[in-house]
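Example 5.3 — EF-hand domain-containing protein
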Amino acid sequence: MTCRLPLTVLLLGVGLSGSVLCAPLDTANAAKDDFARTRFEFLDANRDGVLSKYEYDSDVVFETADRNRDQLLSADELQAAIGPQPADAPTAPERMIAVDLDRDGQLDDAELRRALEMRFSWLDRNADGGLDFDEMKAGVGARVRP
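Solution (predicted structure tokens):
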């Protein structure tokens, strides 16, 4: 299941790296398109051109990121899952603030599920229950706030 690890990058609203955001417009747009296409194709398990809520699943995130198997994601586990980031990118604890409802510095299944459902709903602009590529691409680099 470690092949699903890049899912956390998208699901928790990481977005594009600072170097892409500072690139010339055409380069930034091409990088955004490439990033969105890579993520979309990776997540579209059944290759139907639409991401379902099942394909956008928190169980996968927990299974791959919860390294100590305590059913909680710490900031360190989240950072390991996200991987190297630009110096100006938010830290894992900063990314967790909006969804860590009990403020314990960790994400439990309910908190992560809420975050993923919130992001999925926000990305699903036409409210059809699935994400097409254009919806996914429109959300790349954007942060969702509760």
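Remark. The two ends are 29 Å apart (CA to CA).
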